[in-house]
Amino acid sequence: MGDVLYHPAPLTGEPSVPSWEGVGGSRPPPQAQYVMGHDDRERRRLALQASILNPFTEQLLRRAGISTGMHVLDLGCGIGEVSLMAARLVGRHGAVTAIDIDETALATAADRAREQALGNLKFVQGSIDQYDPGCAFDAVIGRHILIHSRDPLAILSKAYEWLSQAGVAVFQEYDFSTVHSTYPPCRLRDRLMAVFRDFFGTMTQGNIGTRLLHLLLEAGFRAPDCRVEYPMDGGADSPFYEWIVESFRSIAPRAVAVGFVKESEFNIDALEQQLRQEAASRNASIPGPTMVGCFARKP
């Protein structure tokens, strides 16, 4: 496979300097269709989303036992939010390998690792389908990766193979089959969430969160520990409005093309302010999308 690697400096306590090395071969096709795109605006949206979701993810990783000295594989790492989090948890005596199809996102992740002096990271550019780590890991983790995969069970089965005995798989996924309304009702936000529900339910594995426990058992794991949760916010200063609008912007062209929304239904440039005014004027509670976090061990 055509890998691009970021090699960490030795764990000496000195800041690491990332270097990139191209390994022969052509770039493989993505393991699935990522419907949100791969441009700079999408990477910024991912960073905004992470600022909201990271506390939930870190709590999940800690509950799953990700800790000092472990060797961790992060699937679909994007700009490295979960990879960096895992690297801090495993410390200088542990290591994190992170894989993604988006080379530009990986470059951003490597820059961030360097800025944070995290020398225990390796980034690999390529397809999960074709990845062969050549070693066993203590944990395989992923956030919002299975929802975009063609075959989630195949990925979880690979995770099972890549784990050492008693290793743990940790996944956190959206579930758009359950969308909670605002209170008091906010017509605009609830309409946008209905578009997300219909779009992700058709174009992706939209109910993957609910399926996680079943799929982990099918892949051979035992006794999955699962929790359903989502952030909730409100008020004039909430980052939710930008998050919702930028998420909608990412899917809008495809949502229009397949008929989930009319091109004239929303003024996307005014949408953030409209959401803000609608919710703030009602002191509304705004639930985020439902997420399911699961972890399970290899027997």
Task: List the keywords.
40% helix, disordered N terminus, alpha/beta, nine-stranded mixed beta sheet, 299 residues
What does it look like?
This protein is α/β, with parallel strands linked by helices and 299 residues long. It has a single domain (4-297), classed as 3-Layer(aba) Sandwich (Rossmann fold), CATH 3.40.50. It has helices at 40-63, 81-90, 103-115, 152-162, 187-203, 208-218, 240-257, 268-282; strands at 4-6, 20-22, 71-75, 95-100, 121-125, 137-143, 163-174, 222-229, 232-233, 286-287, 291-297. The two termini are 30 Å apart.
Number of strands: 11
Unreliable stretches covering 5 or more consecutive residues: 1-32
CATH architecture label? 3-Layer(aba) Sandwich
Shape: globular
Integer-rounded radius of gyration: 19 Å
For the sheet with most strands, the description reads: 9 strands, mixed
Summarize this entry quickly.
The chain is of the alpha/beta class.
List the helices and strands and how they pair.
Blueprint: E1 4-6, E2 20-22, H1 40-63, E3 71-75, H2 81-90, E4 95-100, H3 103-115, E5 121-125, E6 137-143, H4 152-162, E7 163-174, H5 187-203, H6 208-218, E8 222-229, E9 232-233, H7 240-257, H8 268-282, E10 286-287, E11 291-297
Parallel strand pairs: 3-4, 3-6, 4-5, 6-7
Antiparallel strand pairs: 1-2, 1-5, 7-11, 8-11, 9-10
